Structure formats: C-alpha cells, structure tokens
Structures
1.
Amino acid sequence: MKQDKIIGAILLLVALSAISGLGLITVFIFREGVPIILRLGARQFFLSTDWEPSLGKFGILSMIGGSLAVTVGAAAIGVVFSLGLAIVLTQFSPPGLSAALKPLIELLAGIPSVVYGFVGVVTLVPLIRHTLGGPGLSVLAASIVLGIMILPTITSIAIDALQAVSPTYLEGSIALGATRWQTVTMVILRAARSGIVAAVILGMGRAIGETMAVIMVAGNALEVPHSLLDPVRTLTSNIALEMGYASGAHRQALFATGVTLFVIITLLNIAALGFSRRRPARSRVG
Amino acid sequence: MAKKIETQGLDLYYGKFHALSGVNLSIESHVITAIIGPSGCGKSTLLRSLNRMNDLVHGVRVAGRVLLDGVDILAPSTNLSLLRRRVGMVFQRPNPFPLSVFDNVAYGLRVHGEMRRSHLLPVVESSLQSTLLWDELKDKLDSSALELSPEQQQRLCISRVVAVKPEVLLMDEPCSALDPIATGRIEDLMRALAGGYTIVIVTHNMQQAARVAAQTAYMLLGELVEVGPTAHIFENPKDKRTEDYVSGLYG
C-alpha cells in the first residue's frame, strides 16, 4: 500500500542514482579521452608503438599487445586449473566436499590484488629469473599471477554451468557402458559449453582489467613482447603509473587508454552474456 | 524357456529405507517381462539392479545375487562397462544427448572404442532401421537430437541402446512421457524387438503389460508378490493382493 509505494520510490531513486553515477563516469571518460584519439587519428593512436608523452607521441600498440599477452596467458592457465577444479568438484567428489570447497574458492576472490602481486614479486619473479632467465618481471609472471586471480571467477561459474546439466544425460551415458570420464568429455562438457565459455570470457574481463598485481610483476617496459620472458606494460598499468603526474595532452591520452580498455571489457562482457543466455541444452520434454 | 536373468534373495537399501526385500525373480530369454505395481513399490529399483544403475545412488546397499546367464553381476569383479553393454536401458523420459542424431546412436560404439565413421555408419543405419526411424531421419543425421518429437526422441534412445547389440533391454516406463498414439507405436516396436532381445519393462499401466508382456511380475512394498504368464496374473491370480491390484481395488 502507501508505505510500499514510498519504499519502492526510494529504492528506485537509489538504483537510478547508482546507475546514473556509472553513466556519468562513462560520459566523463569518453569526453576526456575521445578528442585526442580523433586529433591524433585512430591509426596513430592504436597502431603506433611510440609512447613518449614529452614529445607528444601517444601510441598504445605495445600496451594493447601487453594486455592481450597477459590476458591470453592468464586465460590459458586459469582455464586449465578452473575447469579441472570444476569437473572434479561436480563429477568426481562426494557432494559434501564440493559444498565445503566452493565457498573456499570464492573466498580467494576476496584477497586484495596487491597481496597476489606481492607474493608474485617475492616468489615467482625470482624463480623465473633463476630458472628460465630474463628479468623475471615478465609476461609469464603476470600470466601466472592473473591466472590464479581469475581462478575463483571461472571455477565458480563453470561449477554452476556443470551443475545445471540435466542428470538424465549422466544416466543415459552410464547406462550405455560409458565411464564417468567418458561421460564428462563426451556429453557433460558439451552440454555445459555455453556456460563454460561465458565463465572464461568473464575471467578474461577480470584479467584485462586487473592493475595492481600486474604492475608489480609485469615489468612495465614499453615494448611489444617477443617472448614470455619479456617485460610488458598493460593498458591498466599505463594509466595507473602515469596518471599521477600527467597533464594536458598526456592526461587526455591516458583517458583515451581508459576508453580503449572500457570498450574491450564491454565487448567481452557482451560476449559472455550472449553465451550464458543460450539456454543449456535440454531435452524438450525433460 | 531358458532363464536369462535370475535374482536370488535380492535385498536393497537406500540408507535405512528397505526398498527391495528378498526378491526372487526369473526372467525368461527372448520374451517381454513386465513388472507392475503401485508407485514406490520398488519396480524401478529392481529394474535398475539388473544393470547396476543403482550404483550411482549414494548410500545404496545390496545383498543377494543377480545372475545373468548364471554369473553373479553383483560380484565386485564385474566389468560394469561390459555389463551395461549387454544389458541396455531405456528411461522414462526420453534423454537423447545434446548431440546430433548420428552422434547419439554412435555414442555407445564410441564409448566402447569404435571411432571410425566408416564402421559407425552401417551400425547407425541398421539401428535406426530397427526402430523405424531411418526413413524419417536419414537426411537429418547431423541435426540436433533435441529437435525431434518426444516419440522420435524415445525411438532414438532405443536405437542408441540397440546399436551396442545388447542381450537384454530394460525399459523404465518408456511411454509415460508419450501420448497414446506414440505409446501404441512404441509398443509395436517392443513386440517387434522381442524376438531378438530379452526385454524387461516397468510400467504402472496394467493394460500396457497385458498388451505386450508374455510374463508379468507384480510388486508391492518392495516385495515380489507374484510372477507368472501374463494371462494368469490378470485373469487368475493366486495371491489376494495381486487380485485386488489387477481388478483395480487400489494402485
């Protein structure tokens, strides 16, 4: 009644102000960043590797390369471990164990990224330097740290996708003489495919947007990486490292870097949404 | 007639629930045996003991013996993959995999190691022919099995089992998700298959048992009350409880 209406109106106002806050941030970033892209030309901005703010050169290609390299690396590492974990917890362990472990995995998502970065710098970077050579601060180090950081995201969504697969598939497959493992690889992963792809894309979105841990372990050199052991600078690192002292065109170029990042992450999220909206395949009468 | 399957003193517990108690049932070779009884009487549980599908249930305990051609399948040394190849199962709700028609029928063969498409194709064709699906689906082998009608899906599930050349077909209320016309056609199919396979069907539809089965077993509260030729069970039951059930007093 009347009280409900008032509460409804208040909640609507709160929701709208949160959304409009996001909208304002978006508008602000684009207003600050887009003009310099237009002035330099998209080609100059996106396809040049020269980033020398003091000379007025703003090419972000090496950072796009750096972001892509660590994101793909992180996804490769994250997918292997997350999918393995999700399969074990949903298919090969007693229900009590997965119920106990899933919250623990989700807890991993709550550890601050600076902690991941710190552990990476103290243990992983020297390890890579001594065993594989190079500076240690590298694509490889960043990929491993990010791979671990996105593990909770991918695992948790992949578990949901696997649990949504109709148990009648399992029965049908076992009844034909298949082993549990054959059933997983031949039917269950196929049935959960769209959800798993969405999980991986969302994980990649997290990886490409991560900043602190990457700054600590990636080395931040301004060059297109040629090997996994080369140091790289990502789009996020670039903004975080330089925003403190940037002004004028330099500051605008950093906003333009942010616009680039924003567009990439939005596209990833749209793709993930598209995949997860595809209903898990189910038998029509099932 | 030869005994294909024989259960001896079969007891089964789900946790503390005593689902089957002392079931002694002989299933004749190459005929259709129906298991009837009210909901919850243990008939599906009994059926699922014959290919050890109950192993999937947590906390299940089984005692007694289930002999397939005289060999106890409850023995720990049983090769479950081979057992389920010999004793195939069709479920209550059609459950084709979210794969193509071809991949559904070829599934069992692939599971058992046959990967060459040239070897799979003739088996897929003959399996679909045995369930009268080939003419309808020969041009749709690559489309998804989930797009078929429920009856076609159930026929496909039967084809999928037939493809691995089982000796026994277990059917757990295979028509309960189908309309009466589709049910009639699936029953025709069962009769056509009966010569080549030993078929055990669980149904709560007494007319269905009367129409298809040579032998009928009546179960109540986890016990096998009576088993015999179908006509005897329906017209001249020995046990009062069977008579009450088949005459429609309860169930």
2.
Amino acid sequence: MIAPPTLLREQIQSVLGSRYGAAFLTQKKTAGETLPSVVGEIPRGALTEIAGPASSGRTSLLYSLLATASSGEEFCTLLDTEDTFDPESAAAAGVRLSQVLWVRCGGNVEHALKSLDMLANAGGFGLIAIDLADTPAKIVRRIPIAAWFRLRHAVENTRTALVVVAQQIHAGSCSALKIELSRSRALWRGRSSGCLLDAFEATTQYIRNHRAQERRFTILR
Amino acid sequence: MFACLHAPGNLPLLEECARYFSPLIEVTSPDTIVFDIRGLRWIYGAPAQIASEIQRKVGVAANLALASNPDAAVHAARGIRGVTILPPGREAAILALLPPYLLGGSPEFARTLDLWGIRTFGEFADLPPLGVAARLGEEGTHMQQLARGTGSRQLRLHVDPLVFREEKELEDSLDLREPLLFLLSRMLSELCRRLRCHGRSTNEIRLRLKLERASDHTATLRLPVPMLDSKVLLKLLELELNDSPPQAPIEKIQLEMMPIEPRTTQHGLFLPSAPEPEKLEITLARIRGLVGAANVGAPELVNTHRPGAIRTGRLKTAKGAAVPLHPKLAIRRFRPPYPAQVWCTGGKPVRIFSSMGGGSIVACAGPWQTSGDWWTSEVWNHQEWDIEIQSMGVFRIYQDYLLGQWLIEGNYD
C-alpha cells in the first residue's frame, strides 16, 4: 500500500530532519524551529527569558543551550554583562568555544544592550544570549520595555534564539517563553573530609502561552 | 625575435633598458636578460636597426644578441662580444665556435663532452642525434638542440611583485574627518578596482597618515576573510579612525592593500547559517569601539592550571561530537574575586562574610591545594573550598597564601 504524501513527508523528515534540518525549512516553518534543551524546546526567532536566583542552575542551562547550538555548527554570541563567563566549565559542558563570540561588557548594561541590538540585526547566529544574572535587578528593571520589543522584532523570522538570563522576568509579553528556576538543592557526596559537591537538583517553571509546567532536572558536576 | 643583453654587474641597468622595449622580460641570470622584441620591426625596422636602438639605449658596454629563440640569443650574447644578429636558419653556423661550457648542463655531461674531445658547439652539433640520445639521454638531445641554435621555449617572465598602494599628498592640511573619509573612499575604490583586475582580494589594509608637526599616524586593519567591498572597507577604516583619531592635521595619506587569493566558498543547502563575514566584521568593529578590542572574541583555553586563565581569538567553526542535552554544573567566575572574612573550626570554614553578604556554611568540600608559576613573578598558591552558604547558594572560595586573604572565586549556578 502506498503511504499518503503527508505521511511520507513526515517519515522522511523524521529520518533526515535531525541531520539535514535546513532542507525542510520554509518561511512558515522558520519561526517554528526550536533549540532542544533539558527543560523543553527553546523557540528560535523569539525571546526566551531564563530567571532565577544564584545557584538555581541558570548558567548551567545557558551553557547547555550554547553547547547544543554550537555542536550544530552554528555560531553563538554571549553578551557577558558582568564578565562572569567561565570558558573552562563551558568547554566541559560541551560548548565549542571557537564558535562563541564572547563580549565582555564590564558591568555596563547599556553597552551590553547596544551590542545585543547590533548582533541581533547582523543576523546569522544560532543563539544570542545576554547574561544579566549578576546585574542588580533594579538596574535591569530600568531597561524600557521598548528595548525588549525591538530585540524581539530583530530576531523575528530568523533562526536566532534570543535568550536573556537574569534574576527575574523583565521582558514581560515580549518573551515567547519564560523559564523560572528556583534555588537548586545541592547534592553532596561523601561525609566529612571526603565530601564532594556532586550535583544540583533544579526545579523550573516552563511558562509558554500563559501555561506553566513544572519540570525537574539534575545538573551533574 | 628575442634580444639578449649580457653585461656583468649591471642588472638594474639592463632591466631598465629591456623594460623600455618590452614588458615581456626574463632575468636569466644576474648578468643576462632576455626580452621579446616581436613587433619592434614596425617601429624601428630591420633587426640591425633594432639592435642599434637597444645598444644606444643601454648606454654601457654590453653584449647584445638577437635571435629567433631565447636560448640562441643567450648563448650568442654570452659567447660573442658586441652585437650579434642570428638570422633564422643560420644560428648553428654562428654559434659553432662557442665553447660547450656555455651550454650549461650537469657536471657529468660536461665531463663526458670533455672526454669525447668536444671543444665547440659545432663539434657537438655535428654528432649523430641517435647516438647522442643513446649515450647522453634526454639531456644530451636537449643540449644538442641548443648547440644547433634550434631550442624552443617560452620566456620565464619576470613579474614585479604586485603592490597595491595609493598615495595622496595634500596641498592644504586636513583636520576634519569627512574630507579625509572622502579621499579614503576614492583611494579605496581605485585600489579595489585594481585588485579586482588582478583577480585578487585583500585581508590587510595599512593606512599611514603623515601629520603636521607630529609623528606619522598608522593603522592596520587585519580582516578575518579576504574582502573586496570598498564600502565595507571604508566603514572599517572609519571605525578604526573613530577609535584612534590622528592627533594633528594630515599632510599626506598613504593607503596600501595586501593582495591575497579571493575567498571562494560554496554555500551548501544543508549547512547551518552563519553571519555574513563583511557584516559581522563591521558589527564587531563597532562593538570593539564600545567595549574595547580586548573584550571581544572567541574564548580560548590556555594551557595552564592557573584558575581563570583565558584569552580570546577569532571565531571559527570546530568539529566535535554531539553533546548530550543534560547540563553540567557551571561556575560563574567573579572578576575580580570578592574579598571575604572566613571563620574556620577544625580547619573547615564554618562562617563567611563579604560585601556580597554572608552567613553560616552548611556544607563544604575541600581543601584542594593549587599552586604554580613559582618560577615567575605571577606565582599563585591557593587552598580551594566548595561551600554552601545558607540562603545564598554554593560558592567556590579560596585562601590566597601569598596575600593571606580569603576570596570568593565564583558561584556554582
């Protein structure tokens, strides 16, 4: 029996799609493309916010996204507002460092946003991330909502996933996906002098289209 | 027809003379130059008149030979004093008395001719070709053709290294940016046109501005990929001049582009998209102007155990295995680390206080001793701990033995 064309197409895409993703791209599908992650799909062509307090697993999740994008031979950008990026642990997480453009902004949020705007408009990146996790929340709150709208507009209909890491959600309705992490539980292995930091147990709220889903994952050392 | 000039120790003069008559010249040796004179008969007439014109132009005592092939001209110029004209078909007769060492060739070949008692070109040319081929092989056959003056080869053309340089001396000094950019735009367009004509591109631009009562201002743009878009190059130069403007009015502009093979890439249908190099370079130049050149680049790991040692390089694709989706524990490194006060009990940290905050340490792991570079002035000697501070998170701290101080290195996140 001959399979109907729709089914046949689905089958071909499922076999070849992961290897030759670009072959099945159409203008309509571009916005639907996603970047896989442990918490769920991160949309391309849209703004995603990752928020949480210190030691909640925000940075580990960001490095995991950078690793996924760079392993697909895509170029990524990290706008490091407070200069806290650690290339060693990023490399250990699987990030191909030579494909990551690292912009250190020395604590200047304005410079970070200007650079982000320029890079988002330059195009061609698989992932653009801005790290505002150590920037005081009162400074991040001063970023006008229009700036987030402009950034969202800059990556619309592109294959770029725009990710903002901060302590709190700030972009509001501009972000297509919000990932809120709560403080992780640190798992220590061994006792007394032989004790070792082994893993983090992270809990996250995956909020998309006003629907929240709680997800848990483990961050191994 | 080919002309050969031979004069020991006068190569620049010979080259200048040859270039006057023909663009197709071969520097055969430091004292011999051959050049193509086909077509000169329309200007000067018969070969004798061409020879007299060349001799008049060269201005020094040089042997000159005109022949239908370059090798015959070279041998005649090297072996016969004055002017020699070898009409086609009479080369063998004119070259017949020359000694065989002028043929060149390997030492074995010269020794063999000597053993055979061959003393002139003519004697060698008269030997039966089949016998020469059987005894001396391919080299012997070729040398016999040369001895007969019937060699045929193309000139090994002497091409000057391509220099793409534009200079502009200004009547009035320039102290405004817009007129400077206007002039640079014209110079870049001209250089790009010349590069395109030669099928070349550029990956380095050198700008030198001669300033009024000040030392020269220089700027060098190194491009990650070969480019040939004058608008892009002008924008990059503009950004470079914005970052470091000349400190005095400009008297002279010199712009040079280093030629390189153009970039040829075949974009694949299934390849992931990448930033357009020209656009990315302009964007990066703008960002460098904003945050500083040292703060932009692809991070590279340094081959050292020193904590936090990094450097930045250029973006490039790398091959590697696919990574699992599961995240690995990352650290956020504080640059510089925060000084802290740490209270220890039984050798373990139990309480910490710093400008970030503080509290009781509920769990810790360590210590790990790290040290290195004791042979340099940048020695380090640390004792590291991983600590969990109540209601703050998990941090990496260390005690710097050299400073005698506790510092918070980073936050596990």
